[in-house]
Write the structure tokens for this entry.
Amino acid sequence: MSHPTGSVRHMSIEWNWQRVLTWCAHHAPVTASRIRPPADPQEVRDAETATGRPWPEQLRQWFALHDGSPQDRPVAQVLPGFIPCSASEAATTNAEMVEIWQENTDELGGAEALEAGQTSYTYLPAYIPIAHDGGRGYLLVDTRPGPLSGCVLEFTGEDADQFGPQWRSIDEMLGEIADALEHGGNVAEWTPRAGGGELDWEIE
């Protein structure tokens, strides 16, 4: 999990998101143009209701800042290796993935009782997608209770959630990304590159 160091602070999620968008507007305008405007508040409420889980405030704020990106190219890969999804896509994906992994969840038993951040080896209803990689990989917010409730984790194919939390919160994630864009550097193994008006992330 990343830890706040240097200029990575627990600032507001709005501020860190604006830092990312401002950098993209100057260095990757095509990527910036592919971010949809904020989701309608009712759509966010409907998505939360559809998942059957109370969302942490930062998750609601996340979809109040944008409503994902169109699925066709060029994609808006503003997150390292991932493309933001819309509020309605988050609810739909949550339902689909819960169903796909239900048998595995039943076999494991008790996975839902684990605290946020603990590996469940399956897809739980508490996992709310915020971005996808265009395939079977997702960035999720873990809404289970516990000290790490609201943390961001990666869920990828058969590896499931075994890599554990990547960030403690959406805000921490955006702060680290904004720092890498503004000052140079990596986010984990990912290095940002701007070219042809687009932001891309390369694995070092």
User: Anything to note?
Assistant: Residues 13-27 form the longest helix (15 residues). DSSP finds seven helices and seven strands in the chain. Residues 13-187 form a domain with the SMI1/KNR4-like fold (CATH 3.40.1580.10). The radius of gyration is 16 Å.
